[in-house]
Amino acid sequence: MGMPKKEKITIGITYCNRKEVFANYEKWLSHDAWNADVEILQLSYGKNNLNEILNCHGLVLSGGVDIHPKFYGSNNLSYDFAPENGFQEQRDEFEINAYKAALKNDIPVLGICRGAQLINCILGGSLIQDLGSELNSVHKKDTQDKLHPVNIEAKSLLAEIIMDSTMMINSAHHQAVKYLGAGLRVNAISNEGIFEGFEWEEKTGKPFLLGLQWHPERLMNDEVKEDEPSKKIRMHFVNEIIKSKNKKL
After folding, report:
1. What is the mean pLDDT of residues 30-48?
2. Is position 174 annotated as part of the catalytic site?
3. What pLDDT, on the 0 to 100 scale, is given for residue 223?
């Protein structure tokens, strides 16, 4: 018997302003996709190509600089922590519209770090603007990502994907979800009580959604091996994209 035919899928990834960082997402999503031929499409306000979301079967909202506080109803004048790389309101607005277009067109979405935070804000949630020195020592990237455990919420989609109650993740954030957006449930919590992931509370009739505060695309070493939980997340996302694509045919 020959090899099964691979599904051709296009995954749109929002540009994170650094080629080498974007390359991590490309490599991760196209690596070892035994059941899919993955094409990557870069989406960005710089390219002004929001319309191309309609050519995508899946969307990844990538990490990057802090979201402007106005997008979660906060007065940035009271924002004591100065963002290291400033704000990028054009990017915020572009990605807000990209997410809304994905939701409207039943396109599966994976939000990573900033991307997860942005989804939460779009759905009416808010952010902790800075975790403070004690929590930043656990969660904020120094010369490399911080590694720490998280607890996976029982009976969540993430628990079904990971098939475990705990996992090690890599953190590179100084902000986090404060209040959850409408329709979301937390699926992963750090030992310090920081929300590390979310999904739909009730997923019936909604496209796939998973928000992760960590960076699974960076959990691959020089031999292009990835940790098992990251592989499970990637393959589940790809399978959800294939199911969504075929449902529309």
Report:
1. 89
2. no
3. 47
